UniProtKB/TrEMBL annotation:
Ranges for the RCC repeats: 94-145, 146-199, 200-252, 256-309, 310-361, 362-431, 432-467
Keyword Repeat set for record: yes
Protein name in the entry: RCC1-like domain-containing protein
Domain RCC1-like: 78-413
Pfam (any one): WD40_RLD
Origin organism lineage: Eukaryota, Viridiplantae, Streptophyta, Embryophyta, Tracheophyta
Keywords: Repeat
Coiled coil: none
Organism: Manihot esculenta (Cassava)
Cited PROSITE patterns: RCC1_2 (PS00626), RCC1_3 (PS50012)
Amino acid sequence: MCLLQATCSFFRQPANFSPDYELSISELAALDMCQKRAIFKPMTPEERQDLKQRCGGSWKLVLRFLLAGEACCRREKSQAIAGPGHSIAVTSKGVVYSFGSNNSGQLGHGTTEEEWRPRQIRSLQGIRIIQAAAGPGRTMLISDAGQVYAFGKDSFGEAEYGVQGAKLVTTPQLVESLKNIFVVQAAIGNFFTAVLSREGRVYTFSWGSDAKLGHQTESNDVEPHPLLGALENIPVVQIAAGYCYLLALACQPSGMSVYSVGCGLGGKLGHGSRTDEKYPRLIEQFQLLNLQPTVVAAGAWHAAVVGRDGRVCTWGWGRYGCLGHGNEECESVPKVVEALGNVKAVHVATGDYTTFVVSDEGDVYSFGCGESASLGHNAAAVVADGQGNRHANVLSPQLVTSLKEVKEPVVQISLTNSIYWNAHTFALTESGKLYAFGAGDKGQLGIELVNSQTERGNPEMVDIGLI
C-alpha cells in the first residue's frame, strides 16, 4: 500500500531529483517518498547510499525502514514521557515542558526545586526537540538535527543511589561524545543508556563492569560504543530499555524482527532460558508465531510486542499479572495474549509490573500491578495486604473505562518504568490532549493534588497543549 501511494505521488508531480535510468519505476517512486521524510532530507548523497546498502540495496527497503521508525517512535509528533518521579512533554512544534521531582536537576530549569505544573524549558528556545527519554534522576532530549541534550545525574548504574558527590547538570547540555552521531532515539535503563542513529546503528554507554553489553567498557566509561554482534549490519528502527536489558526492533529484507541483549533473569530476553546475553540475539519465537513485530516495549522485568496483524505478545517476569495471561507465571518466550484476541492493537507500553495496550479504535486496556492507581481502574476492588491498603492487581487485560469518558481516541500511553518509584501514567489523545493518573506525590502528574492526596485514580487533563 505504501509503495502504491508512493508511485501515485511520484506520477502526480515533478520528482525532486535527476532521472536515474538504472532504477525501476517503483524504485524511483520509493526514492521520491524517501526524500520527503524529515530524517532523510539532510543526508548527503554518500550517507544515502550507505543507508541504501545497509537496508539491503533497495530504495523500497529504505522507505520501509523510515516509515517503520516513524510509526513506532512518534518522531515529529507530540509525546509525553512518564519518568521515575518526573515527566517530560514534547509538543508537535518541538517545545519541551517538564514537571515533577527535580532533586537531580532532571527538569532542566537550572534548579533542583519540584514543579507541580508543566513548565517550559526556556534554554531550549530555537531548538526543535523530536524525542525524549527519562530515567532515574536524568533526562535526554533529541533535536531534529540529531543532537542529544542531557541533564540531571551524569552517572549511571545502581551505585549512584545513596552516593553523595555525583555531578548534577540542571540545564540541558549538549552531549559532546555524540556530536558526530545523528541520533533519532534514546533509551535509558537503570544501568546504561542506548541511542539509535539515523542509519539504524545502536550505541550504548555506561553499562558497567558486571554485565558488559557487546563491548568492553568500565562503569565510568561515558563514551558511546557501537553495539557489536548480530546488529552491526542490520538497521534498527526502535530501541527499548528495561532495568538491565535492551530490545531492538530490526528491519531486514525478510521482514521485521526483535533482538535482545543483557540480563536474562525472569526470561525477559525471550530465548526460552534465563541466561544473560552479551551480544544481541534474535528472538526466534516470532517466526514460529508467524508474527511481524511493529512496536516493541521493554518493562523493568517484562517485555511486549505488537504485531502487524494487531496481536500482542508478552514475556518475562509475570509478577502481579503484568503479562496478561491470567496468572503470575513467568514466560521465557513471547506468548500471545489470548484475552486480546478480539482487539487489534497498534501500541503497547510497559512499566515496572504493568502493561497498557491501545487498539486501532483508540481504546485502552491495562493489566498488572494496581499500586498507585496507575492502571486507571479506579473502580477496582481494594484489597488489604497487611501493610495498609493497595489497589487490586489485574491478571488479564481490562478495558480502562475511565479513558472512554474522555470521548476521544487515545494514540499513546506512557508509564513509569522503574522499580524505585510509584508509577504514574499518561494518555495522549488524537487531538493532543494529555490525561494523567496514578502517583503524583512529587508533582509528576502536572496536576495540583488537594486534601493530602498522593495519587489520582481517574484520568485528569493536564493544562498543556501539545499540538
